[in-house]
Amino acid sequence: MNKIKVLCVDDSALIRSIMSKIVNEQPDMEMVATAPDPLIARDLIKRHSPDVLTLDVEMPRMDGLDFLERLMRLRPMPVIMVSSLTQKGSEITLNALELGAIDFVTKPQMGLQDGMLKYSELIADKIRVAARVRNFQRYSETSAPARLPASPLIGSEKIIAIGSSTGGTEALRQVLTAMPLNCPGIMITQHMPAGFTRSFAERLNKLCRITVKEAENGDRILPGHAYLAPGGIHLGLTRSGANYHAQLQDLPPVNRHCPSVDLLFHSVAKYAGKNAVGAILTGMGYDGAQGMQAMHQAGARTLAQSERTCVVYGMPREAVALGCVDEIVDIDQMCQHILSNVVGQARRI
């Protein structure tokens, strides 16, 4: 079996060393070269034809974003961004995902052996997934869904739950920017570390007609609003009388993720039942499949993103395999299908 060829671009010699060690310890991959800046990286890419590039977001001589934009235009390839845990770092990373980067990781925290072991596993998993990806278009090159007109007035008992992971930031953008102002309340779990979800919610809020915010404990789930799980905290649904509320829980990871899609979906199945519509979007792994099964069994309508429009057809595939998906939908049609199912539920009830 041919090993996955990785090239690391980072101005930190320490990070280049750590990344090389992590990659070369994996039996199925090798670090073919490292570069301290994008100008040197250009020649190394031509020489080694790597399968995956890891790219620092902030570097001298040429900005990581400028390099990524040129790379995706001239020689598209799977790129994983390596970001600092700062406001600026999170904003640059979100720009990189728009430009076509597959995924991102934060820079490692030194000195914690257990933490470095988990970090190594995370890096290796993301590289393996990225090496299999062939759908890494820039968002601006994909067909943007039309903004949908307001639907017939739907009661506030309706709720939409969405789960996503790798590739999910741009998939969510396509779904949410099409939502009308009177859509049911939306709860979202996107696998993303702490420090990035607030920037992501703020970015979506500027692009969408609906209000998008990072969820806070006790938030009332209102029509025309979307609530994004904070990084590192589980988001669930609870109910008080006739009102739905967001519940944040500081619990261990579920399916290796915090926040977890499964936890959100299970809570929606419990408290919303047949009044809910669930959608599982692009992402690696199996988080969300069992929760979607619970929603389906509780009478909710369930949708999965189609394989041909997923960056990674992992999470949707697992849900489909459980037989709990009512519809498989291209991402540019997902908003319309979600709303059609909400309206269909209201008519049936």
From TrEMBL:
Involved in chemotaxis. Part of a chemotaxis signal transduction system that modulates chemotaxis in response to various stimuli. Catalyzes the demethylation of specific methylglutamate residues introduced into the chemoreceptors (methyl-accepting chemotaxis proteins or MCP) by CheR. Also mediates the irreversible deamidation of specific glutamine residues to glutamic acid. Phosphorylated by CheA. Phosphorylation of the N-terminal regulatory domain activates the methylesterase activity. The modification 4-aspartylphosphate is found at residue 56. The gene is cheB. GO terms for biological process: chemotaxis. Signal peptide: none annotated. Its EC number is 3.1.1.61, 3.5.1.44. The active site is at 165, 191, 287. It comes from the Bacteria. Keywords: Chemotaxis, Cytoplasm, Hydrolase, Phosphoprotein. One of its GO terms (cellular component) is cytoplasm. Belongs to the CheB family. HAMAP family: CheB_chemtxs. GO terms for molecular function: phosphorelay response regulator activity; protein-glutamate methylesterase activity; protein-glutamine glutaminase activity. It catalyses: [protein]-L-glutamate 5-O-methyl ester + H2O = L-glutamyl-[protein] + methanol + H(+); L-glutaminyl-[protein] + H2O = L-glutamyl-[protein] + NH4(+). This is Protein-glutamate methylesterase/protein-glutamine glutaminase. Contains a C-terminal catalytic domain, and an N-terminal region which modulates catalytic activity. Pfam families: CheB_methylest (PF01339), Response_reg (PF00072). It is found in: Cytoplasm. Residues 152-345 form the CheB-type methylesterase domain.
